[in-house]
Amino acid sequence: MNPTIMEQHVTKETSPDVESRILQTLFDRLNQNSIRYCVLRNYASLPYTLDGSDIDMLIDPFDMNRAASVIESVVREFHGKRICDYAVHTHIVRYCGYVEGAWWSLPIDLFSDLEYRGLPYFDAQEVLHRARLHNDVRIASAEDACFIIFLKDLLFNDRARNGITEKAYPAYRQNEQVYKPLLENIFGKRSTEFLILCLSGKNEIYTRRSLAHRLRRSLSIRSLQRKPLWTLRCRCSNMIQRLGRLFRRPGFWVVVLGTDGSGKSTILDGIEPVMESALHNRIQHGHIRPHWLPSLARLFGQPEQQGPVSNPHESRPSGFLGSLFRLVYYSLDYTLGYWGRVYPSLVKRPALYVFDRYYYDFILDPRRVRLALPGWITRIMGAMIPKPDLILCLGADAEQIHARKPELPPKEIDRQVHSLKRFCAAHKRAFWIDTGGSIEQSLDQALEAITSAMASRYPMRQVSGTDTFWKILLPHPSFDGILTHEIEQEVLDGLKHCYDIVDATPRRPQYHMLVTGSNHRKEQIWLPLLDRIRKDGYFVFTGRYPGKRLLRKAGLTVMSRYAGLPAHRPRLFIPLQSAQGTNRGLLFHVPGSRKLRFTWSIVRFLARLGIQKPLHHYTITLCSRNRCTRQPNDLIAFLSKCLGYPIGDLVLYGGSDTPQRKTTVLALATDDGQDVVVKIADTDMAKKALKQETDALRKLADSPLTGQVPKLLFEDHWREYTLQVQQKCPLPSRRQIPTLTPIHTAFLVKLTEQGKQTIPIAQTSVWKQIQDAFDNRNGPVSLSVQQLLTRVLSDGFAHSPVICHRIHGDFAPWNIRLHREKIMVYDWEDSEPKGVAFTDTFHFLFRQAWLVGPWPGADAMIRKMRATAELLAEKAEIDRIMIDRALPLWALAQFLHAPSNPIVQIITFLGDEFVAKT
Predict the structure, then answer these.
(1) pLDDT greater than 80 at residue 734
(2) Radius of gyration over alpha carbons of the chain, in Å?
(3) CA distances from 244 to 87, 88, 250, 252, 254 (A)
(4) Over residues 722-750, mean pLDDT
(5) Which of 113, 640, 702, 821 is most buried, judged by most C-beta within 10 A?
(6) How far, in Å, are 62, 316, 512, 540, 618 from residue 558 at the CA level?
(7) At 540, which helix (H) or strand (E)?
């Protein structure tokens, strides 16, 4: 490699071809789903390019959920991530992704109404009604777009953009019959007349500030006079949303660390165009500290260092007291500077604040900042310094760095690189980038790390047609037709996957079922649709429980009701018809984190007292006009017939987001001891996973593990589903055990004896999966991952022997019940007969540390994995050399399953060990 290659200026730009395909796909999907929308401005280049702008899209509020889900489905299709998502007067969403070797961005502002601090200043429905087509994209009329921009700038900014005022008056004159009554209704007659006089130029005394003040005051007073309670509620809701940004910042803070010559400037220059395009906002930069306080040199009247530092270790360190004063003074600057300069920038808008170096230099390279203090003092002070959201640690071979910038000797560079690696491994938010490769590769790694960290704050909505909830809960196997209204896109996709005839808009005279969503309290919206439903039809309400009073008014009778938990993304559906069923349903799932367990215990306590209000945030309510009974072909009747005793109700759980997703059902019998667990699959991958679990349970039924794995009762088919019925776990629900106890180890020792054999690594299924996955991988891969991959796929490693046996595949605390000296391990759908030894041990330790915490650091994690595996190897009589062969296989497989920052850190350490050995 050329020693000076990292000094070249390279930037990443958005591919116009990819951008054009994304935009065309997006607007085609919106049109296909009959979503009412229009683009308000900057639409001349759509749908071919954004031309450096964002998309301001006005959407009918009843289509907002479906539109958001359609956008997310398109983003997912092009391997994108949601990197920013917050709402004030509009819903601001930012997407960024990597596909076909190019980065793309999609900034969108979604408006459900045209409002100022919760109060509408223009009729959005009128704008949607007057929208027209432009290149198959619905856009606002030129007059509406011009007038809306004028009002928005005036109300929000006390000003108008250049040329807008001159265009606003002709737009008004052209549509005076529509605009005048509309404005008089919102602002009042006198304020509207004043606005028109100002626009026409007949009132030359006014200032835009005075006009804006008058309009805002008229808007508030008029709204209070007409709808006082509604106005107060809108204002309070808007204020809560604005205050919410203080606790959930839309901006993101990145620190870049590395020695001189490691490529920091190149990385910062390279990521700038992509992130500025994605966020539709300029990146803000900081160097070493916020500079809220002046430097000590300036404070004492000495000249400050200007430009790049040629010899960072030239100045002598201060004495102990001088160093302590320097540390305290600059620590104060970091704290005050964060709250006074960095934090406000992160709160106001979607921003990326990037620091070149930070306080960590006081720990990693104290001589550079003239400190002569024990390390523990610097670390204690550092605990009080605000922490960034992501730390990018750059490094390469010491000789390469020295060739780029020879200011420091290679020995010192090598020390700093190794210190930075240890620092990176100990911090969960730190990400290592080896800049010894090509510039493009390093930039891709940096962008992938930043976008992944930003996206982790906003889990992508699950848009999947594989949900079996609807098929199980709905009382009929088939219908003449389902009419849906105001439901989220994923629910609509689930219904379309379940049934042949699903309409989002009324097209037929009669339907068998109406499914309505979160805005069902607006009676004027869904009550007229009741005439479209047959007399023996059903009504399904999703979202907040509508209440008995509203249902009685509509003449509906509740058949059954299920609470969805958690409310923001329901996975567990609990029957609410009986207190006993509710309590048993709440005990079916135990969360892992302390916070969720505490919340869960409060909900259970209130449910035992008969207080179900906390469960009403998301419900599925099944109603009918007459008192219908359950159908003889539903799941409850089917299970009652197969088991020989009555089943009263069902608890549904769908916790997995993997392609093998299935629905787990707790069938509630009259006697608690006769409850059974039913697993249901309707897709090919889910059926395959269920078959793997069935084979595993049958193999283990006659093994020493009998009684420690679920008892398989029977397997059958119901409608188009594959069913597996297991005995309910006999152990009581308890908190999840976060550590591997001797009971866990004894279970794993017994498991190693099931199908134990020695085969070459190349014949294992995990090795073949790694080989195939990396051949077809779409996305940047770090140099450390490539190093470990090269080792694993080499002939010498591939032909090495390894011990295989049946493994659980997902041996984690949430799949294990432990009570006193008894253990029960369930969920065997990822089980393999030829799994590599120690895989379950590694999986347990990593998943607990990563998902629940605390994260001890990659170095400590690897040591703990090896120590635990050595204990298992000793008891199971397995050669310890197998640990070094199993660990890289597991790490790469975990990276393919979920490429998180902690697993990349582990792979980096394993790759360095491999390089050191060779």
Answers:
(1) no
(2) 31
(3) 9, 9, 10, 16, 22
(4) 86
(5) 113
(6) 25, 80, 16, 10, 16
(7) strand 533-543
- Which residue type occupies 534? R
Nearest to 287 by CA among 258, 261, 255, 329: 255
DSSP class of residue 855 equals: -
Please tell me what DSSP assigns to residue 338: I
**756-761-767 Cα angle (round to 5):** 110
Going by C-beta distance under 8 Å and a sequence separation of 6 or more, which residues neighbour residue 351?
250, 251, 252, 279, 281, 283, 284, 345
Helices (H) and strands (E) in the chain, counts: 34, 31
Say what the pLDDT of residue 11 is. 54
Q: How far apart are CA 911 and CA 329, in angstroms?
A: 40
Is the CB of residue 749 less than 8 Å from the CB of residue 872? yes
Cβ–Cβ under 8 Å, residues 682 and 851: no
Reported as type and span, the H/E element at residue 836 is strand 832-836
Query: Is residue 251 within 8 Å of residue 347, measured between CB atoms?
Result: yes
- Cβ atoms 649, 575 nearer than 8 A: yes
- Which amino acid is residue 43, in one-letter code? Y
Could you tell me the end-to-end alpha-carbon distance of the chain, in angstroms, rounded to an integer? 20
d(CA 211, CA 895): 58
Q: Report the pLDDT value the prediction gives residue 656, as an integer from 0 to 100.
A: 62
Residue 272: what residue type?
A: E
Reported as a pLDDT band with limits 50, 70 and 90, residue 306 is low
pLDDT tens-digit profile of 639-665? 888 988 888 888 888 766 555 678 888
Question: Which residue type occupies 869?
Answer: A
Quote the crossing angle between the two packed helices 765-775 and 881-897, to the nearest 10°: 40
Burial class (CB in 10 A: 0-12, 13-18, 19+), 311: exposed
User: CA 53 to CA 276: how far, in whole Å?
Assistant: 11
Instruction: List phi, psi (to 5°) of 838.
Output: 75, -5
Task: Choose between 469 and 296: higher pLDDT.
Answer: 296
Token pair for residue 192?
A: 């509207």
How does DSSP assign 716-743, residue by residue?
EEETTEEEEEEEPP-SPP-PPP-S--HH
**What is the rounded CA–CA span in Å between residue 780 and residue 797?**
25
Q: How far is CA 716 from the centre of its chain?
A: 36
d(C-alpha 78, C-alpha 19), whole Å? 10
Residue 197, CB half-sphere, CA atoms under 13 Å: how many?
A: 13
Proportion of the chain above pLDDT 90, given as a percent: 16
The label of the residue with tokens 């980096």 reads 908
Q: Report the pLDDT value the prediction gives residue 5, as an integer from 0 to 100.
A: 38
Residues 268 and 352 sit within 8 Å (Cβ to Cβ): no
| Cα 545 from chain centroid (whole Å) | 27
Residue 590 tokens, joined: 């135990």
User: In the prediction, which pLDDT does 460 show?
Assistant: 58
Contact 167, 144 (CB under 8 A): no
Answering whether pTM is above 0.85, one says no
DSSP E strand stretches across 654-702:
663-669, 676-681
77 by Cβ neighbours in 10 Å (0-12 / 13-18 / 19+) ranks as middle
3-state secondary structure 265-318: HHHHHHHHHHHHHHHCCCCEEEECECCCCCCHHHHCCCCCCCCCCCCCCCCCCC
Q: 859 to each of 192, 241, 277, 889, how far by Cα in Å?
A: 68, 41, 37, 17
